[in-house]
Protein: 3-isopropylmalate dehydratase
Amino acid sequence: MLAIIGKTGSAGGTGHVVEFCGDAIRALSMEGRMTLCNMAIEMGAKAGLVAPDETTFNYVKGRLHAPKGRDF
Structure:
């Protein structure tokens, strides 16, 4: 994230939502992904998000407010 901020500047994401994806992101744990999204504000972004994949679905599955049945 700091490398991205180094390229875009601390205001590079101002007014935008930043989506992270790719091999490096897929290799991150859910905790790492949440940290990355949390740091999106450091580049001025309104929010950060990670493209959902099996890691995301496995993390959500079975949680209290997760969709159930066909909705999941």
Notes: Residues 37 and 48 are 4 Å apart (CA to CA). The chain has a mean pLDDT of 91. The first strand starts at residue 17 and ends at 20.
